[in-house]
From TrEMBL:
Pfam family, one: SH2
Residues in the signal sequence: none
Taxon lineage: Eukaryota, Metazoa, Porifera, Demospongiae, Heteroscleromorpha
Cellular component annotations (GO), alphabetically ordered: cytoplasm
Domain SH2 per the UniProt entry, residue ranges: 67-150
Name of the molecule in the record: SH2 domain-containing protein 4B
Keywords: SH2 domain
Length: 150
């Protein structure tokens, strides 16, 4: 989305798309039947069209956050974190939901937590009755100082 200061509305930008009014991917919760991403390419497209334009996974100066690793598999995430201190983490795109996976180094191994981004645009860990946040950065900031209870 691109902010148009004159009209005070957001205008979608879809370069090369013949029908920009039709969404390329559906942004829905994993709990809704038939809405799980089919391929990693769908997830990357979702990220590029919905998340990146809003500044998610970027610092205030526009650079990509050091904790964001994009298209990174589970095994590679575990490898990158295995020698890091307990509490170290990275964020990667998830293939299981329209959202992210946060991989966290614990005392014994690396744990992986799914972050769902349902249609309402609230960020939450996958599961019932999870605390919701307005952004991924807000979720990460909260759990830097609070224990993840699943």
């Amino acid at each position: 989305m691109k902010w148009d200061r004159n009209k005070q509305t957001r205008k979608p930008i879809h370069p090369g798309r013949t029908n920009p009014s039709k969404p390329l991917v559906r942004r829905s919760s994993v709990f809704e039947p038939g809405t799980k991403p089919k391929t990693l390419d769908h997830v990357v497209t979702w990220f590029r069209e919905r998340e990146a334009p809003c500044g998610h996974c970027r610092e205030r100066d526009g650079t990509i956050s050091l904790w964001f690793h994009g298209r990174l598999g589970r095994a590679k995430a575990e490898y990158l974190l295995e020698k890091k201190p307990v509490g170290s983490y990275l964020v990667r795109l998830s293939l299981k939901t329209w959202g992210y996976t946060i991989s966290v180094k614990t005392y014994t191994d690396v744990k992986h937590f799914l972050v769902d981004v349902p249609s309402g645009g609230r960020y939450q860990f996958l599961g019932p009755k999870q605390r919701q946040f307005r952004s991924l950065n807000e979720l990460l900031a909260f759990y830097r100082y609070n224990i993840i209870m699943m």
